[in-house]
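Example S7 (structure tokens).
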């Protein structure tokens, strides 16, 4: 006789005890994401500082260049002839003393003339300039020997400083007046 067979029971294995690996992996990923985020924040902050400094320098450069052009226009229209080593009057000085400290590098020099202020939004910069008369013994047309040598030359120095911890720019040009 056949005995009825009992269906085999499937043994379901009991879930094994988890050792917390998922938690450790999640925490490691969280630390890595935090480090990447902090690195990105540091990079953005540094780029923001660089952009601000570039803007300051650009504005200071534009202000110094405007002062340089203003002084060149003054020389072109008035063609001053101050005496050698003469004191500075309205930013125009006599020929510099070759044995003394150059005027633009002398912190005690007070002959700077304020130029027209340059503004960009809330920032306003008042650049300054000095004009130094170099003499009237320069060739009027360099490279042409037959040209006269009685033309005047001026060294124009312009500076701009937007304030403490801001960019400072100094420009110079040699200007010929005939």
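Recovered sequence:
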């Amino acid at each position: 006789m056949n005995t009825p067979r009992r269906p085999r029971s499937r043994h379901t294995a009991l879930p094994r005890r988890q050792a917390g690996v998922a938690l450790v992996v999640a925490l490691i990923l969280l630390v890595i994401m935090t480090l990447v985020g902090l690195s990105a924040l540091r990079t953005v902050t540094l780029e923001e500082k660089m952009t601000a400094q570039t803007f300051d320098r650009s504005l200071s450069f534009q202000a110094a260049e405007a002062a340089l052009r203003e002084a060149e226009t003054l020389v072109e229209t008035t063609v001053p002839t101050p005496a050698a080593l003469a004191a500075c009057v309205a930013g125009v000085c006599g020929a510099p003393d070759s044995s003394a400290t150059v005027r633009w590098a002398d912190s005690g020099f007070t002959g700077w003339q304020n130029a027209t202020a340059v503004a960009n939004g809330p920032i306003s910069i008042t650049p300054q300039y000095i004009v130094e008369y170099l003499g009237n013994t320069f060739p009027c047309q360099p490279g042409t020997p037959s040209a006269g040598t009685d033309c005047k030359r001026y060294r124009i120095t312009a500076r701009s400083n937007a304030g403490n911890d801001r960019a400072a720019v100094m420009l110079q040009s040699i200007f010929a007046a005939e």
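Notes on this example. Residues 21-177 form one domain.
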